[in-house]
Structures are given as structure tokens and as C-alpha cells.
Design brief:
Distance between the termini: 103 Å
Shape: elongated
Structural class: alpha+beta
Largest sheet: 3 strands, antiparallel
Bound molecules: iron/sulfur cluster
Order of helices and strands: HHHHEHEEHEEHHHH
Strand order of the largest sheet: 2-3-5
CATH architecture of one domain: 2-Layer Sandwich
Amino acid sequence: MTDAGSARETERHTGAAPMGARASGTEVPGPKKPNFVRDLLAPAAGFGVTFGSMFRPTVTEQYPFEKVPTQPRYHGRHQLNRHPDGLEKCIGCELCAWVCPADAIFVEGADNEEGAQFSPGERYGRVYQINYLRCIFCALCIEACPTRALTMTNEYELAGPTRAGLIYEKDQLLAPLEDSMLPAPHPMVPGTTDHDYYNGEVTSVAPEQVEWVRENRPEEPALENFKDVTAAAPQTGAADSEEQA
Ligand code: SF4
Ligand code: SF4
């Protein structure tokens, strides 16, 4: 131990300044003198922070009874998006799975076939799983996705009683079906290519798609939203301009 350290140690144990300190003229504070008022108020002073906080606005969050909204770009549960006609955006390319640093994604692609078209183009994601026991919500998979099929929602309540339950399947990750969409499988909008879909040129369900679903999946509940749509209905702006002419 150094001389200074030794001197401090002596003072701590004995309450007296070491000889060396006095000899060198160092001022050593003595014990505090009793002060009646100060000693009387000491317990109240200890509650100063408590009393001060009692009159400040409450910052405690009453979760889970009241949920505080997240920041808009919060990285929450993933979502597999759909095109406006209901076809899936995922093409089963597996880029998201390869880029994932936690090996949390499993994708198995398959070919779209006539009568079983799930996405525009040749391939779709037949199996899609995300393991939320592994995911670190880094969003690298979102960056890698070439079709913007994969995005993240603000949902953060990802807990469960079983490990298996935290491996989300494709049906849990697919975006909710809007009233204006027909769920896959069904053919692409007639006359379009996958590029038209990626360029945002397909904006709604075509009557031919409705007819196809009526014939092949008559039990499809979403058909309720297309009761008045028939393949004979006018579908393009060209038809409108003919009427005007
Ligand atoms: S957010 Fe990150 S860790 Fe989670 S699945 Fe995507 S790439 Fe993997
Ligand atoms: S989510 Fe995107 S990156 Fe992942 S398989 Fe589908 S298209 Fe490919």
C-alpha cells in the first residue's frame, strides 16, 4: 500500500489523523459537531425525494391494461404482404433466410402451377417459418427481400407458454386479407406479367379472377365481397372512354 493509502486507512479505523498528515500540515476535518435542528430534520430530509415525486406527473405504464403505442418504425413481428388482388408477394427466393444472422427463418419455395398460382411469376413460398426464440429483430431480412414481401409490424407481444408456439408459420405471418382482395390461389390479372405487379400496376381484383375462384373454390368466404362482380363487367378505362364516345 502507498503512504497516502496507508494514511487514509489509519484515519478510517481510528478517526484520528496519522502522524505524517499532521506533520506535513494537511487539514483533517474533525467529527461533526451536534446540531439539534439538523438532527431533528434529518429523517424528514430523507423523505424529500419521495415527497417531491408525489406531486410530479406519473410515468408508470399500466401495461398490459394500457398499451403505449410504439415508435412508427419499431421492429416488431414480421408480416408477409400481399398484392392488391390478394396474390402473395413472397416468391420463395430464400434471400431473407440466407441473410438472417440468427438463422431464424426457414423458407421452402415451390413452383406456381396452373390452377395453383399463389404469387405472380414462377415461384412462391410454400413453407415460411420464423423462429421468434432466435430472432433478434435486426431487420436484415427486410432489407434483403427483393419484392417487399417481408416487412415488420409494430406488434411486440411475442411471448408464449411453449417453444413450438413461438415458431410462426406462414398463415400466422400473412397480412390480413382486405375486403378488396381475393386470397390465393388464383390466376394473375389477365394480360399482366410479374413485372406489372412489382411496378404497382395491378391495383385491384379483375372480374376474371373472381370468376375463376367461383368455379374452382365456390366455398371461398371472400367471394361474398364480390357478389356483383362478373367477367362481363367493364374493367378498364378504355371501356369508359368508348361509352363517352
Ligand atoms: S429480424 Fe434479423 S434475426 Fe429476425 S428474422 Fe430477420 S434477419 Fe433474422
Ligand atoms: S420474404 Fe422476400 S426474401 Fe424471403 S423468400 Fe419471400 S421474397 Fe424471398
